[in-house]
Write a structure and sequence with these properties.
Layout (H helix, E strand, L loop, with lengths): L8 H13 L1 H9 L10 E6 L4 E6 L2 E2 L1 H13 L3 E6 L8 E4 H17 L7 E5 L4 H13 L2 E4 L6 H11 L3 E5 L1 E4 L2 E4 L1 H9 L6 E5 L13 E3 H5 L11 E2 L3 E7 L7 E6 H16 L6 E4 L6 H13 L3 E5 L10 H8 L4 E4 L1 H9 L3 H4 L8 E5 L5 H11 L6 E4 L33 E4 L11 E7 L9 E2 L3 H9 L6 E10 L3 E7 L3 E4 L2 E4 H9 L4 E11 L3 E10 L7 H14 L8 E4 L13 H9 L15 H8 L3
Parallel strand pairs: 4-17, 6-7, 6-8, 7-14, 8-11, 11-12, 16-17, 16-18, 18-19, 19-20, 29-30
Antiparallel strand pairs: 1-2, 3-13, 4-5, 9-10, 14-15, 15-23, 21-22, 22-24, 24-25, 26-27, 28-29
The structure holds adenosine-5'-monophosphate-propyl ester (PRX).
């Protein structure tokens, strides 16, 4: 039977082989390393057509017992969470497993007092403060389904998510710290709640002493409720396939969808992948710089590390405050051994020069990770040389909100390192490349659409409230395959290189947006007649947002109109979706049937105007010359 811990290449190879040849007995063996209240009757039932995926059927568990209670005896006094504030002058906080257990239980008791029950959805709209970790785990403790919304999303984006998942309780804060700025948060929730009549209770954490409006009977201060709740709370018995969380992510069509993960499979894969990709050792300090508002924070700040009894760092701040040496200072301060960040952060710090790095020793580092978008070779080498000093393995981890955990990646110190290549699939993951007809492309040195042909425990189960959407998005493109939306290349030795999205999704600084989602926001501006958004290569962000906009007659095509349109996007989605370039045009290249030829717009945005291809099918071919001539 395969070991939980992969310790060398031959372990990896034998685990991988077993996981493909006998997936059920392989995952049975891995799942036995966790604490179950009742064992499962059957390991797997699946059907990619409907889709219907169930792992560890009828198994009963609570993930927080595995993250917390299970460690109390051996690791009660070990640090579970180190919290580093935005301002380096503010003291960092450390929570042992015992303390974290109490904090989570107390938050869980508050939620119960507010009327939250098993199966209820709770929206968490908090900055990166310890209460975000407590709240997320507290929901899991009582069987409520958490829907964490990144605190940079706007009123409208928050309201959409609250409504879609039917949340009646929101956990938020007065405001947040971001670099040198303080930003209100509760007022955003107040405006969102005005659009969501079903919201009954709002729990507010005081972070920055910002004056807030508290609605009697609806709004409660966390610190006040803490005074009368107990510090133990029974862990709700959950079925393996009960929902654990919803996390919204963008697709190529419509509004963001709520990806649903369930308790048993997600737990098994989160701990297993964390352990093996990062080769975590008992005394290591691990830091993932993501925000818990994204899946990376869910799986690799909270669940994965805590399942393995690790010490996980949580950072409130930004990489450039008070200066671009902040990450490296935090690594030295907490003697971080394993560091996991995004290529966009690396590229922006690279641009501020190596002096900020040289001010710190970084001698504690043993392994580095990258996530969120393809890492270009230049950034890979800079990260490996200047941060890892050439001695730390660098794992490039490819995965998605929908996959729940890392799918393709090197294992630190075990796998061969190849810049800009994610590497080999983890045990249990069966990637396949297909052509546009869905026919498998075999062999090496080949490119195709990246799909997965067999279920893995932490895969998406549904999109909340709309199962058909899940089927159409992921399972209907190619028969009997999960379609990732990415293109990839396979080299010798089953090594994968991810090329990027092949659908209308753009990846801006590791954040996913549908082009239609940004267009819908832009079109809310009354001056806009029509718009088309595409991605283009951006030195720091990976991809930038390029918007072509037709303005209403009589509107001036000036910076004032540009600023207004940007404000509209900020209002409807958030700052993170601001277009980088806005080009005003008199028309868009459309086919006779009215379809926008995005291929042409992408080429122009990329500056590749010599290869626009066939434009003869366009309604008005002349518009292409106008757009190409006015390119920004
Ligand atoms: O295009 C891939 C890219 O990010 C997408 C998933 O985005 P999201 O669900 O927001 O999750 C991000 C964090 C897991 C993928 O479809 N992506 C993510 N990691 C990588 C990547 N592309 C290349 N290399 C990666 N390591």
């Amino acid at each position: 039977m395969a070991n939980f811990r992969i310790q060398n290449l031959s372990d990896y190879e034998s685990s991988y082989r077993e996981s493909i040849e006998q997936p059920e007995s392989f995952w049975d063996g891995i799942a036995k390393n966790y604490q179950w209240q009742k064992p499962w009757d059957k390991t797997l039932e699946w059907n990619f057509e409907t889709p219907d995926i169930k792992w560890f059927l009828n198994g009963k568990l609570n993930i927080t017992e595995n993250c917390l209670d299970r460690h109390l005896e051996q690791r009660g006094n070990k640090i579970a969470l180190i919290w580093e504030a935005n301002d380096p002058k503010e003291a960092s906080l450390r929570f042992t497993y015992r303390e974290l257990h109490q904090k989570v239980c107390r938050m869980a008791n508050i939620l119960k007092e507010l009327g939250v029950k098993k199966g209820d959805r709770v929206c968490i709209y908090l900055p990166m403060i310890p209460e975000l970790a407590f709240a997320t785990l507290a929901c899991a403790r009582i069987g409520a389904v958490h829907s964490v919304v990144f605190a940079g999303f706007s009123v409208n984006a928050l309201a959409d998510r609250i409504q879609d998942s039917g949340c009646e309780v929101i956990i938020t804060s007065d405001g947040l710290n971001r670099g040198a700025k303080q930003i209100p948060v509760k007022s955003v929730v107040d405006e969102a709640v005005a659009l969501c009549p079903d919201v009954k209770k709002v729990l507010v954490v005081n972070r920055i002493n910002w004056p807030v409006h508290m609605e009697t009977g609806r709004d409660y201060w966390y610190h006040e409720m803490l005074t009368h709740v107990g510090d133990t709370c029974h862990a709700q018995t959950m079925d393996s396939e009960d929902n654990l969380f919803i996390l919204y992510t963008s697709g190529s069509t419509g509004k963001p969808k709520g990806v649903v993960h369930t308790c048993g499979g997600y737990m098994v894969y989160a701990g297993y992948s964390f352990q093996n990709v990062f080769q975590y050792n008992e005394s290591d300090v691990y830091w993932c710089t993501a925000d818990i508002g994204w899946v990376t924070g869910h799986t690799y700040i909270l669940y994965g590390p805590l399942l393995q009894g690790a010490t996980s760092v949580m950072f409130e701040g930004v990489p450039t405050f008070p200066d671009p040496g902040r990450f490296w200072q935090v690594i030295d301060k907490h003697s971080v051994n394993i560091f996991y960040t995004a290529p966009t952060a690396i590229r922006s710090l690279m641009a501020s020069g190596v002096d900020h790095v040289l001010a710190y020793s970084l001698h504690s580092l043993k392994a580095l990770g990258s996530v969120g978008e393809p890492i270009n070779e230049e950034a890979w080498h800079w990260y490996h040389t200047h941060i890892g000093k050439g001695r730390c393995p660098l794992v490039d981890t490819w995965w998605q909100t929908e996959t729940g955990g890392i799918m393709i990646s090197g294992l630190a110190g075990i796998s061969e390192l190849k810049p800009a290549h994610a590497g080999q699939p983890l045990p249990g993951i069966q990637p396949i490349l297909v052509d546009s007809e869905g026919k498998e492309i075999e062999g090496e040195g080949v490119e195709g659409y990246l799909c997965v042909k067999f279920p893995w425990p932490s895969m998406i189960r549904t999109t909340f409230g709309d199962h058909e959407r899940c089927r159409i998005n992921y399972f209907a493109t190619y028969k009997n395959l999960y379609f990732t939306g990415d293109g990839a290349r396979r080299e010798a030795n089953n090594m994968y290189r991810i090329i990027g999205r092949v659908d209308d999704v753009i990846n801006v600084s590791g954040h996913r947006f549908g082009t239609a989602e940004i267009e819908n926001a832009i079109n809310q501006n009354k001056k806009v007649i029509e718009s088309a958004v595409v991605g283009y290569p951006h030195d720091i962000k990976g991809q930038g947002i390029y918007a072509y906009i037709i303005l209403a007659e009589g509107t001036s095509q000036d910076n004032h109109s540009r600023d207004e349109i940007i404000e509209t996007v900020v209002e409807h989605i958030g700052r993170i979706a601001k277009p980088d370039k806005i080009q005003f045009v008199s028309g868009l290249p459309k086919t006779r049937s009215g379809k926008i030829m995005r291929r042409i717009l992408r080429k122009i945005a990329e500056g590749d105007i010599s290869a626009l291809g066939d434009t003869s099918t366009l309604l008005d071919p002349l518009v292409v010359d106008e757009i190409a001539g006015g390119r920004l």
